[in-house]
Amino acid sequence: MLIGVPKEIKTHEYRVGLVPASVQDLVKNGHKVIIQKNAGDGIFAYDKEYQQAGATIVDNAEEVFAKADMVVKVKEPQLSECKMLNEGQILFTYLHLAPDPEQTSALRESGCTAIAYETVTDKSGGLPLLAPMSEIAGRMSIQVGANCLETAKGGRGILLGGVPGVLPGKVLIIGAGASGTSAIRVAVGIGADVTVLDLSVARLRQIEEIFGAKVKTAYSTIANLQNLLVEADLVIGAVLVPGANAPKLVSREMLKKMKKGSVVVDIAIDQGGCLETSKPTTHSKPTFSEEGVIHYCVTNMPGVVAQSSSYALNNATLPYAKSIANSGWRKAIEKDRGLAMGVNINEGHITCEPVAREQNQPYKPIQ
């Protein structure tokens, strides 16, 4: 199979779909790989390294899309990229289609088979290709939240870890999945006062076993959420419904009761965000203020720690990319039903039920 990797074009996106080590593995499996010129510069993986791994360097994205049987990316294709996709071509990347009907329509029109990292499941029902970026976003959320709390950034001037004689800042984490747990780990590490909300008592029990008395846990009810929001200096929105829009848990009315200068980092923004007031931002202009609360809603948070992110992502995606390349996507999903869950678009049809439901469109099971 001929596998192509274009340079990412989303604002401040520096990751790359395949790192040189992954290229080497694919080439050893008998496949050909073409890489757009300078695609790996953001992770300091230069064209020479890709050539040494066995890839061929091409000048532009048009050539990648025109030649490749499978296009491997990181972020969802921009509309200009969707126009370059071809019928029968495989697209393997993050898609986050539920809140993006425009992209969904463009992918359907292309006739490609689009496989989304974020809806591939493993044998236990986990999300193995979403997990590494969720972990990075979770860790980053405390870092960027602490920065936004600085007075010069419009925040309350709170040091999350506190100092002797001064109480630490209060962090509320909504959701105890991969991103939420990673956020807990960093918040606890810097000495913040941490509370986590989740709908699963079993998961809250696990959090208590991991972190002990350093973390307070609460079942996610409207009353608990309202009470904790009022006290919080930093709120991390880390909820996820695989493939679907994130639930809007925090209303504008709740936001009005929060402290002025407090900060919300909405990790769920890729799936539409979990606050009524959330809207996508970029690393160029990452924040905005609503009701006196600073919102950080960057849709590609891990893009600015591109080297760590690209290698972590490739560790997870490479086995799937090899399976698709070795067998073709049809045989690959027959062997792995979890991979079948990743097929969101096929031959003009929506094959991911949550996406079809959210967009009120017909659903055609990939089976």
Structure description:
- There is one protein chain.
- The protein has 367 residues and is α/β, with parallel strands linked by helices.
- It folds into 2 domains: 2-120 and 306-358, NAD(P)-binding Rossmann-like Domain (Rossmann fold); 131-303, 3-Layer(aba) Sandwich (Rossmann fold), CATH 3.40.50.
- The protein is built from 14 helices and 15 strands.
- The strands form 2 sheets. The protein has an 8-stranded mixed beta sheet with strand order 3-2-1-4-5-6-14-15, sandwiched between helices.
- α1 (20-28) runs parallel beside α2, α6 crosses α7 (178-189) and α11 packs across α12 (329-335).
- The longest helix has 22 residues, at 306-327.
Task: Describe how the helices and strands are arranged.
Elements: E1 2-5, H1 20-28, E2 32-36, H2 47-53, E3 56-58, H3 61-67, E4 70-72, H4 79-82, E5 90-93, H5 101-110, E6 113-116, H6 131-148, E7 170-174, H7 178-189, E8 193-198, H8 201-211, E9 215-219, H9 222-231, E10 234-237, H10 252-256, E11 263-266, E12 287-290, E13 293-296, H11 306-327, H12 329-335, H13 337-340, E14 343-346, E15 349-350, H14 353-358
Parallel strand pairs: 1-2, 1-4, 2-3, 4-5, 5-6, 7-8, 7-10, 8-9, 10-11, 11-13
Antiparallel strand pairs: 6-14, 12-13, 14-15
